[in-house]
Amino acid sequence: MLMYVIVVGGGKVGYYLAKTLLAEGHEVAIVEREEKICRKLELDLGDILVHADGSTPAGLELAGAGRAQVLTAVTGQDETNLVTCQVARTFFNVQRTIGRINNPKNETLFRLLDAGTAVSSTQIIAGLIQREVDTRHIQKLLPLATGKVNLFELDMIESSPALGKAVADLSMPPGTLLVAVMRAGSVIVPDGRTRLLKGDRLIAVAQSDREEELARLLFGAEA
Asked: Buried-most residue among 30, 160, 161, 197 (CB within 10 A)?
């Protein structure tokens, strides 16, 4: 089912989350209060940017929160994300709110205040360590669809079996998608002709049951 999703926060997580959702066909708005960031993102994402404070009713109203099925607050400040989720639920009756938190202790606060689902980057990284995934080369940025799909950041390394190959020749596992390639300070939206080079940083989406296949494809034995 396609949805209207509001992403509050135009940082790296918000940017790639929006690109992923757009690639899946969802309608997306990014709410960002810094005008400079809005102008920068508009060059790539077009008119989905809303220059406003997403933690206020006025800001969310500009973004059309009254018709949003999902709101996710991914700024770098836990308190801002908490307030944003509360405003969305209280004033606009958004049924599904997701807030990014940096301090795992704030997850309890989210739950007590009925602010929605809290996603802790710290817990994600800890989970990667427990699963013996090499965090030098692969890092889970954000779980989607209640953990069934995850957004990853991956660094290409010299020993990667995918190095130098075009995307069309990679045989990406089903349930995975290469969203962006960051190279020399610029962002490339890959197509089948895009070749992966040493030093590239990849943003990919993978279903949870396909993560190991994706890691083996990109890192071979080091996965």
From this structure: 30
* Amino acid, single-letter form, for residue 133: V
DSSP-derived pairing of the beta strands 201-207 and 149-155: antiparallel
Pairing status of strand 70-73 against strand 49-51: unpaired
Give residues with Cβ within 8 angstroms of 143, minimum separation 6. 119, 124, 149, 150, 151
Residues above pLDDT 70, as percent of the chain: 87
Residue 7: φ, ψ to 5°: -110, 115
SS3 content of the chain, % helix, strand, coil (to 5): 40, 30, 35
Strands 138-144 and 70-73: unpaired
- Domains along the chain with CATH numbers: 4-121 (3.40.50.720), 131-222 (3.30.70.1450)
CA distance 20 to 131: 25
Helix axes 35-45, 12-23, angle to 10 degrees: 30
Of residues 58, 89, 57, 49, the one with CA closest to residue 72: 89
Q: How many Å apart are CA 182 and CA 30, to the nearest integer?
A: 21
pTM attached to this predicted model: 0.58
